[in-house]
Design a protein that fits this description.
The chain has 114 residues and is α+β, with helices and mostly antiparallel strands. 17% of the residues lie in helices and 17% in strands. The chain contains 3 helices and 3 strands; from the N terminus they run ββαβαα. A 3-stranded antiparallel sheet has the order 1-2-3.
Length: 114
């Protein structure tokens, strides 16, 4: 039997849910069906950030939702690679964040992205 595909989809509105204490929460949708070919079987409709597609995938039971806390990794010195051994964080925590300044204001404007 083939392994079940791993799929995470963060809601596009996640960052808009900061509460008064400054904590940010969001909904993570994850694949939870037994099918190893969910797109071909019509269980998942992509792209998942399109509300009708997400609703269809939830209706068919292919996705489940869980509320999570969202942490600002930029405040974490180790994750930002600012320690004595910046690459060690990959072994200990599985990720390394890289600073990147984005000049694009409107990601739907193809001319601005080019």
């Amino acid at each position: 039997a083939r392994a079940r595909p791993a799929l995470l989809c963060f809601s596009s509105k996640m960052m808009a849910t900061a509460n008064a204490s400054g904590a940010t929460t969001g909904t993570v949708h994850y694949y939870c069906h037994d099918s190893s070919t969910p797109m071909e079987d019509g269980l998942l409709s992509g792209p998942l950030d399109d509300p009708p597609n997400l609703a269809r995938s939830l209706k068919f039971g292919a996705l489940a939702a869980v509320e999570v806390s969202v942490l600002d990794g930029r405040a974490d010195e180790a994750l930002m690679g600012r320690g004595d051994a910046p690459m060690k964080v990959l072994d200990t925590r599985g990720m390394l964040l890289m600073p990147h300044a984005v000049a694009v204001q409107d990601f739907s404007d193809a001319e601005e992205i080019d």
